Fold:
Amino acid sequence: MRDAPESRLGAFFDRVKPGVEDALDRILPAASAPPAVVHEAMRYSVFAGGKRLRPVLALAAYSAFRPDWDRALPVAAALELVHTYSLIHDDLPAMDDDDFRRGQPSCHRKFGEAVAILAGDALLTLAFETIAGCPAFPPARIVEAVGMLARAAGTREGMIAGQVRDLGAQGAPVDPEALEAIHRAKTGALVEASLAIGAHLAGAGTDPMARLAAYGRRIGLAFQIMDDILDETAPAGDLGKTPGKDRAQEKATYPGLYGVEESRRMVRRITSEARDQARELGEGAGLLVEIGAYLESRTH
Amino acid sequence: MRDAPESRLGAFFDRVKPGVEDALDRILPAASAPPAVVHEAMRYSVFAGGKRLRPVLALAAYSAFRPDWDRALPVAAALELVHTYSLIHDDLPAMDDDDFRRGQPSCHRKFGEAVAILAGDALLTLAFETIAGCPAFPPARIVEAVGMLARAAGTREGMIAGQVRDLGAQGAPVDPEALEAIHRAKTGALVEASLAIGAHLAGAGTDPMARLAAYGRRIGLAFQIMDDILDETAPAGDLGKTPGKDRAQEKATYPGLYGVEESRRMVRRITSEARDQARELGEGAGLLVEIGAYLESRTH
Structure:
């Protein structure tokens, strides 16, 4: 989003990002707090240069319904903790076996496998502790947010389901339905949940929540297809990881199934639908409309 | 506890255990539900013959304050999910590298490392989903239970802190304070939290909660010392894992530091103190008094 600073979205991003960084810094134990090695590893991975996309989406969705997004910062930061846990565990030798992440050695390359496993476990645990400890919202709303996040991270339709299916699909041909199911669970579920949790904390009603879910499904899918495209096309320096790794591991990807150009067309179509859905959310959803346009612009 | 069926504790155990098993069965996705392999792995480890100690402690603590313990069954089962996740991850090759658990191949030996890591992640996630989805208690109480469990599982004074310290202590001499700190975090925190969460859900006040915490600290420590003693002295068939493994890995243990006989004396002293504290909780805490006596009896 740093590519679009002139937009409302860019301005919102510039405004909320320091708050997200600050919330993460306050939530994470000090690197010197014993047992230091796991806290160092948690901070190493959380502060490795992530775009904070999920927190920003949560805060943008919150802002569609209420202006005081700063109250939701701890919960937004918790979404980033869950995202980071999933990256640490996905990079492990037994999983995707990635030595680099965001241009630096992956957590297990830096701290060893045992500490990396525990750092991931700890970030997931801390995410729930953080949401439960957020005093800004009524308990009933917090309980629902905990459930939404757990489902998005879980084995039925969540991140773990996506990772299991992704591992199972390596080296085997996948059809379009299976590919969408992998992506929807692996990336889409947490993106959708980030938007939904933001809106829910802001007190959005049933009807806007349903519209937002439809929007979130498309945005989540578009993000994953963009990631697949970038893995194929971006120079290593931009990507921060080994480019073409997906293809080398015979992973199921959109460019692998449809080619890069058709994948770009799909992102444009999906984000265009998402923009239309965001518009139906009314005046406050301008940021969400722009997220669709922003994603679309990255395909050119 | 099956050794003491004639006691009130044994009768309570016989009464609640089927409910715990049933709750676990209802909470866990079917082994055939896609993606099946992770659900199979979760069920394999959860139904590997665990004693359900943490759920029973939670329900016993609940029963000290209210009779309708069946309302707390989903939360009690969630404690077992967290315990099982910690066993799966602790057994991984990068951690304690245990091939057997409860007499069967450990999760990663049976399903591979990737699935074992994900099954552990999934059980932890499902525990929070389960507590958040428990309709029997007011949201404020559920939120507090989520926080208590997350802290008990976390890096400050919880299970992950204990595991990090335990890994760091292997092969190096430890002093009594360091040993107690490892054990208190690794086993004690979740045992204490099980008791505290049970009492909290039942609406226990501040004063009983403080007494229960003091009791729980002792019970948790006694359980871990007993585990250390059994690792040294029990035949392999009884233990379900490789006996003497702690010593072979140069782990920090009570028998290693104090010898088996002195460790038994310590369990008797600690459980005797715990019994006294349980008595101060009044009439309803008979089961908790008996837990102390039961532990004491196992040292003979």
About this structure: Chain A has one domain: 8-297. Chain A touches chain B through 53 residues (CB under 8 Å). Chain A has a mean pLDDT of 91.
